[in-house]
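Retry 2 of 3 after timeout on previous attempt. Resubmitting structure tokens to design endpoint.
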């Protein structure tokens, strides 16, 4: 060790020092397992207080319970906030809505309903014609009819 202490930095710079300056005492690792076992047994002999042992065993359960309590608190608070802060709308109540629809249906005539059904039927026919026009166009462009049906 003395060799490393004297001018150690200079000698390291010049590459004169080689090898490992640190060495374990003779027989250190021969007696290491028994010394380690003795140390562990001494630590086991020192009894920890009952409260510490109980807390060591219960710590995961207490942590989980606290997590659940915090989650439940956040969930209840969020639901309470959402229920109390819903935007108010001017939509009629279900009873008022039913009365309004009833009065409108009385005001509507049979011809009005027939006109609505005819408009829907005409829209369906128009849609079919548009589909047929697309299919005819694609067939004119050389697309196979079977391929078209697979895609539709």
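Retry 2 succeeded. Sequence:
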């Amino acid at each position: 060790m003395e060799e490393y202490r004297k001018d150690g930095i200079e000698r390291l710079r010049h590459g004169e020092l080689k090898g490992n300056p640190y060495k374990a005492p003779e027989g250190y690792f021969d007696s290491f397992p028994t010394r380690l076992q003795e140390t562990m047994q001494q630590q086991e002999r020192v009894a920890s207080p009952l409260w510490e042992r109980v807390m060591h065993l219960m710590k995961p359960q207490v942590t989980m319970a606290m997590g659940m309590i915090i989650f439940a608190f956040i969930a209840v608070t969020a639901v309470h906030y959402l229920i109390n802060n819903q935007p108010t709308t001017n939509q009629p109540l279900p009873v008022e809505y039913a009365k309004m629809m009833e009065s409108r249906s009385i005001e509507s005539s049979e011809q009005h309903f027939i006109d609505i059904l005819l408009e829907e039927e005409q829209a369906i026919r128009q849609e079919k014609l548009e589909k047929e026009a697309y299919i005819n166009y694609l067939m004119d462009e050389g697309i196979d009819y079977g391929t078209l049906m697979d895609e539709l």
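Attempt log closed. Helices lie at 2-5, 8-14, 32-45, 50-84, 94-107, 110-140, 145-151.
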